[in-house]
Each structure stands twice: as C-alpha cells, then as structure tokens.
What does this fold into?
Amino acid sequence: MSGSMFSGQVCVVTGAAGGIGRATAVAMAKEGARVAILDKNAEGAAETLRLVQGAGGDGIALSCDTTDAESVGTAHAAVVARLGDADILVNNAGVGKFVPLAEVSLEEWNRVIAVNVTGYFICAQAFGRAMLARHRGAIVNISSIGAVHPNSEFGSYSVSKAGASMLTKLLAAEWGPYGVRCNAVLPGMVHTPMTAVNYASEEVLKARSAVVPMRRIGSPEDIAAAVLYLAGPNAAYVTGAELVVDGGLTQNYTRLIPRAGQLS
Ligand SMILES: NC(=O)c1ccc[n+]([C@@H]2O[C@H](COP(=O)([O-])OP(=O)(O)OC[C@H]3O[C@@H](n4cnc5c(N)ncnc54)[C@H](O)[C@@H]3O)[C@@H](O)[C@H]2O)c1
It folds into this structure.
C-alpha cells in the first residue's frame, strides 16, 4: 500500500477483470480501500484480486452480470456481507463493437445500451441506496469522449455513453441533497484488452499517437488516477462533472483541416 486516501472505505468496481477497471481496483487498494471486483469474467476478476493482494490490499472478486438486476442484487449482498456497505461505486463495465448504423442489428444495439447505460443504473441503485441512507458516497461513471463526439461506425456506443453521461448528471442532481456525489470520466484512446487489436500493429499505434497532442495513447492508470480524484476527498464539492482524459485528442480537430500551402 502506498497511501491512505481511501483507508476504511469500501469501493466497488464493475468490469474490473482487466483494463481500466483492473487499474482502478489496484489503485484504490493501494490507497487503502477494500475493493469489490465485479465482472462477468470470473477468472479475470480473480486475477485482479491477486494483483490487489500483491499490492498489499484487500478485497473480493465476484462473478456478476451488471445488466441483470438479480445478479447485481446477489453481488451487492455478498459485498455487504464480506466488506460492508459501499462508499464508492465505479461503473466501468462496458462493451462496444465496430458496426455501421446501416447494418447494426437491434440485438447488438440493445446489448450495448444494456451494459453501458442500464447496467450503470442498476448498479447505482443497488449500491447507492445505502449511500443515500448514510448520507455519504461517491459514484464515478466511466463514460467516453464518444458521449460528446460521435464515434462513427460503432453501433449504439456513442448513444450509450451519452446516456451514461446524462445518468451521471441526473444522479448528481437527485442524490446531491443526500451527500452522494456522481461524476464521469471521459477517456479518449486507452490501451486495454477492448482496444488491444488496434495497438498490436506498430503502424496503427504510431498513426493514432500522432493525432493526440500528448503524442501517446492513454494507459489504464491514466484513467484510474482521474477516477481516484473524483471519488476522493479532493473532489468533495465536485458533482455532475465530466472529466475528459484524452491527452488533448478532442481539442485537435481543427488541425485536421488543410490550409493553403499545406497541400502539395
Ligand atoms: N479503452 C478505451 O479506449 C476506452 C475509451 C473510452 C471509454 N472506455 C470505457 O472504459 C470502460 C472500460 O473499458 P476497457 O477499455 O478497460 O475495456 P475492457 O474490455 O478491458 O473492460 C471491460 C470489462 O467489462 C466487463 N463486462 C462487459 N460486460 C459486462 C457485464 N454485462 N457485466 C459485468 N462485466 C462486464 C468485461 O468482461 C471486461 O472485463 C468501458 O466502459 C469503456 O467503454 C474505454
């Protein structure tokens, strides 16, 4: 353990079998939180728990489908029994698949909405009720720059993330009077299992890095650091905020417009 910012607190992280969720669970544990690692992928969740323990932390790994209220209810009961009520919820479990709108099936459209929005709502209700009763708690939703900028040929992903961002603001408005904060992180391009296929090629990695002002792809730890800020005491008066963590990518589009003399 390297700090104590979350010492004595219970933090639930969904989709924590890898990527951003895993980095967040480990970072939270290093700051003293006891973490509940929820994921459909039980094996990956168990591996994250080993990493948490290896970092001197404590927690539990639970198999859970965040789109299924019953499954979330079971996980919630296990978290309360083993660790106590959640102080922090990080809604992170997400999916996406490249498919143009003209071709996306209704099933695929609904699947992405179910995980990326409805799952966040189900978990916020399940873990948030005790926060409301105790008048304290923090929720961080992992949204995306795709919530604000259309992520073309990616099915309902951008619509789902816009939904996650609006859910964030609604929760901030409704639950603020009960001492519960809710904020969102909007990552840009991050190297995780979800996006690994793009970074397997040195050429794609270079081309993608070149359009980011910071000239690199984000790491899961870059996003985890933003989550910890929003969940922690330094953000005590921050709620309903959307923190873009994209190395400047979304500030860069006017640079894509050719100027006279640039085209030869
Ligand atoms: N990687 C990026 O470039 C990027 C950019 C913007 C936003 N995001 C968002 O960050 C979050 C984490 O993504 P990641 O890149 O770490 O991807 P990832 O695929 O590594 O992690 C997502 C995790 O969610 C789990 N999951 C999926 N459906 C689930 C369900 N129904 N119930 C429980 N768990 C489920 C998966 O098993 C997986 O472990 C997602 O919400 C994603 O949309 C990622």
